[in-house]
Amino acid sequence: VFKDVFPRFRTMQGYHVGRKAGWDCHGLPVELAVEKELGFNGKKDIEAFGIAEFNAKCRESVTRHTDAFAELTTRMGYWVDLDDAYRTMDPEYVDSVWWSLKEIFN
């Protein structure tokens, strides 16, 4: 909500506020959903399946659900640029985070 309310308020005050949509593609929710989808019961099943293959399934799951989240975002009335959204699984995004951390701590 805050990702929308404050930028919307500033836009309504006449400021140009870029609002890039983004998808958080990492973490436990995605992994748990894929584990359930594959019928896995934890780390041993993932390792037997193959970590690279499991990661690919996680990326596929995120991609498969992006359209539904975009539709929900639109229906909720968020003012964000869905055409140029970032995804936290994209290498460019990961590189930008590492660059930012380097800038902060150097």
Automatic annotation (TrEMBL):
Q: Name one GO biological process term.
A: isoleucyl-tRNA aminoacylation
Which Pfam family name is an example for this entry? tRNA-synt_1
| Tree of life domain | Bacteria
Outline the extent of the Aminoacyl-tRNA synthetase class Ia domain: 2-105
**What's an example of a GO molecular-function annotation for this chain?**
ATP binding
Q: Which UniProt keywords are listed?
A: Aminoacyl-tRNA synthetase, ATP-binding, Ligase, Nucleotide-binding, Protein biosynthesis
- Which InterPro entries does this chain map to? aa-tRNA-synth_Ia, Ile-tRNA-ligase_type2, Rossmann-like_a/b/a_fold
Supply the name of the protein: Class I tRNA ligase family protein
